[in-house]
Amino acid sequence: MKIVVHLKNLSSLTVGNSSRLTRVDIGFNDMGIPGSSIKGSMRTAISWAIREGLSNFTSCGEIRPEKIEEAHKQKGVCDVCKLFGYPGHEGILRVSSIKVDKKETLTRVSINDSTNTAKEEALFKQEVVPPDSEFTFEIDLNTKDCKMLELTLLSLYFLRLWRLGRGAMIDLKVENIKEYPKDCPSETEEEIKKIMKELGEWLWQ
Q: Where is the CRISPR type III-associated protein domain (predicted)?
């Protein structure tokens, strides 16, 4: 299955680059917005939603490989890891990267976390995508499992309440699903239709 998704950043968006020297202190990633960054944010968002009470799906909620392995031994591989992968297993979801052409440079000031005030002589330059930029990416879901499709859509739904890159607020809209499965259980199909209706429009108008 392939899912076409539109993304719009509501605040300045930065996805940090590698350690190469740039004309700014925090340059934008050479790859644009890597699919792995979007995938990681989707995973974090849906794991948070399950932890907060979203039923019907499981998440081990672990980050460290040894903790993931231990959790899976006790309760079996969780739904989130089946979808997004875990150490030694790639998962069944792939996300395409986004090419970024339009960027601008902002001058920011570092904040002291303990006092919540600006640090003296701590200005830095950051390369960002300006707000209200729109992009399109594609999700490749290598399964016909309707439950995994529902979980994927829910991860996009909750990503709209989460952040991408270095704390940017975003909005998402799903255009369509290619190769939609035709044998979903009626209850699951109804849930998918409800989520798709929500994802059919921008949330933050």
A: 10-167
